[in-house]
Write a structure and sequence with these properties.
Its main location: membrane. With 287 residues, this protein is mainly alpha-helical. Helices cover 82% and strands 0% of the residues.
Length: 287
């Protein structure tokens, strides 16, 4: 068991990540979606604060600004993601759409920082695009996306931007201090949006508050802790392969819990996207 300890932890992370979609879906049943996200990440930042306070005190002004900029990109990503969850019940399909951010990131990095994508990108991206096309025609029989799918695709674009900026600007910032700043930015920006544009119910059930609490402790804090611990004990190649499983579990749970419809075209589209992600990640980690 000790030999496979890291792999087991990374596997658990993918299950936690998949469960986060449904924890959030249940929490926003009675809470405004953006307000839920703001409050969730603000409280998650406060939970991490005691562990990163000392590191925060030693950050330079440039490091704080860089971490805040990355936090703004994360806030945009989560804003679009939670809107997608609000307007869609096909969370499995949404998870595969969001996973495309891994292949969009090299394009954004090329456009902004002039880093040319690796040759494998030009093989993986067309496979993913064919998969995306099959997802689009899988429900309507024609090239058409629902509003939820469009929001998930926009979330994928913003997630790719977040990954690129995080990689570029946050390399030399202690991890816990970085997450406190980023989570705080999400809490402040989403919370501010919610107070301005959303309406909160006066009576939110205790069950919804339990879903909300679970989304903080499980989908945010526990996931981050287990992932950090798992990456220390797991080979990077193995971890990269295992992490690709998250949209797979999300799709399975969505079919089981929410009766998400599955057609042969949709299943094939998801499989092609999964193959594209695997081929790209495996090539990256071998470099």
């Amino acid at each position: 068991m000790q030999q496979y300890f890291g792999q087991i932890l990374i596997f658990i992370v993918t299950l936690i990540g998949a469960s986060g979609w449904f924890l959030s879906k249940n929490a926003i049943a009675e809470m405004p979606s953006v307000g839920f996200m703001g409050l969730r990440f603000l409280l998650a930042a406060l939970i991490f604060l005691p562990f990163g306070y000392r590191s925060l005190c030693h950050l330079t002004k440039t490091q704080i600004l860089n971490a805040s900029a990355v936090g703004i990109a994360l806030a945009l990503n989560l804003f679009l993601w939670v809107q997608g969850i609000t307007y869609s019940d096909d969370l499995g399909e949404g998870a595969f759409l969001v996973s495309l951010s891994m292949l969009i990131a090299p394009l954004i990095s090329w456009l902004i920082f002039k880093y040319r994508p690796l040759p494998v990108f030009w093989l993986s991206m067309p496979i993913a695009l064919v998969g995306l096309y099959l997802l689009a025609i899988g429900r309507y029989g024609e090239l058409r996306f629902s509003s939820g799918s469009i929001l998930f695709l926009l979330s994928s674009l913003s997630a790719a931007l977040y990954f690129v900026l995080n990689h570029q600007y946050a390399k030399n910032i202690p991890s816990v201090a970085l997450i406190v700043i980023q989570f705080s930015m999400v809490g402040i920006l989403c919370g501010g949006y919610s107070l301005t544009f959303e309406v909160w119910q006066t009576n939110i059930s205790s069950q919804t508050w339990l879903w909300f609490l679970a989304s903080i402790l499980i989908a945010s804090n526990l996931r981050y802790f287990v992932q950090t611990l798992g990456q220390k004990h797991c080979n990077i190649t193995t971890a990269a392969i295992i992490m690709v499983l998250e949209p797979v579990w999300t799709l399975i749970l969505s079919v089981w819990i929410m009766n998400e419809p599955i057609t042969m075209l949709k299943l094939l589209g998801c499989l092609l996207i999964l193959c594209a992600l695997l081929s790209y990640r495996l090539n990256i980690v071998r470099k």
